[in-house]
Amino acid sequence: MFSVKIRDHVMIAHSLPSPAFGPAQQLHGATYVVDAEFFRADLDENNIVIDIDIAHKTLAAALAPLKYQNLDALPQFAGKLTTTEFLARHIHQEIAAAVKGSFAGKLRITLGESHVAWASYEADVA
């Protein structure tokens, strides 16, 4: 299995209004390190997994609507608990939709919320 991993970051604000989240129920900020890792069993006709420039631009485009936003105020997240896991899946879906047709393989999105905690979402891009 071959892979290419790229990295960016995003700064957001949000609240997690459920008793399960203790003090994080209140509005707070988070800075996530975002890794996007693309996997293929075989290299394509150019001997690559994905063009790294396209991967970087696609990740940046997926993060742009989130950067410096209060996620609680965005209509697409109304009534949602925007946990790290939830955001990993959201970013995956945005990237998968953008590369569909030019990449076929598996995509893993990992959000690092601190130096000791990460969450990921992984699925095929068809």
Radius of gyration, Cα only, in angstroms?
15 Å
Total beta strands: 5
Tally of individual domains? 1
Residue windows where pLDDT falls under 50 for at least 5 positions: none
CATH architecture: 2-Layer Sandwich
Question: What is the CA-CA span between the terminal residues?
Answer: 17 Å
As an assembly, this protein is: single chain
Main sheet specs:
5 strands, mixed
Strand order of the largest sheet: 3-1-2-4-5
| CATH homology-level superfamily | 6-pyruvoyl tetrahydropterin synthase/QueD
H/E element sequence: EEHEHEE
Architecture overview:
With 126 residues, the protein is α+β, with helices and mostly antiparallel strands. The chain has one domain (2-125): Tetrahydropterin Synthase, Chain A, CATH 3.30.479.10. The protein contains 2 helices and 5 strands; from the N terminus they run E-E-H-E-H-E-E.
Briefly summarize what is shown.
This protein has a five-stranded mixed sheet. With 126 residues, it is an alpha+beta fold.
